[in-house]
Amino acid sequence: xxxxSLNKGGNISLTKAAPTLTSLVLGLGWDLRxxxxxxxxxxxxxxxxxxxxxxxxxAHFVFFNNKRTPDGSVEHSxxxxxxxxxxxxxxxxxxxxxxxPEVDKVAVIASIYEADSRGQSxxxxxxxxxxxxxAANGSEVARYDLTEDAAGETAMLFGEVYRNNDEWKFRAVxxxxxxxxTGIANDFGVQL
Length: 192
Prior knowledge:
The chain is mainly beta. It has one domain: sav2460 like domains (Lipoxygenase-1), CATH 2.60.60.30. The chain has helices spanning 14-17, 115-118, 180-187; strands at 4-6, 11-13, 24-32, 42-49, 61-62, 74-76, 90-94, 105-112, 125-134, 140-145, 155-164, 167-177. The strands form 2 sheets. A 6-stranded mixed sheet has the order 1-10-9-3-7-6, with no helix packed on it. It has a 6-stranded antiparallel sheet with strand order 2-12-11-8-4-5. The radius of gyration is 15 Å and the shape is globular. 43% of the residues are buried. Pfam families: TerD. Residues 3-188 form the TerD domain.
């Protein structure tokens, strides 16, 4: 089953679309458009943010070297070095029912590992997407396909799961960063 397809800036109430949702999987996937033969490694990561828009702590920056938050409510599946094969290349599980009350949103990011030294950007990536899947039954609730050209950008804020009163929602963001993962991390208060 395919979920609701979102455009950039669009959002969906996960609580209304999947009333029994307690845990979700943010699946990211991509294909390479062009390659120089060099390895091309995209990495998914998540930032667990408070109401001030900053990470709760450095331990709330979830990526291949820090696979879970201290309370285990957000967990990374592990690093896929090539993006080969069908389906999600990397995923992040968010147990929304276990997120502490101070969590306002979980931002999901994809970045290109060593993009500058390899001369790579999102302009060389095609069919990039993020999808929200109900972890309990595997059904896709929502999907955002990145369509715009991001020729100079090395990291992308794909979307965010956020709390709105008593509801959990997902927003398709699609904001590129030429400053890579470091630039996004700095913007959200991660101390590198």
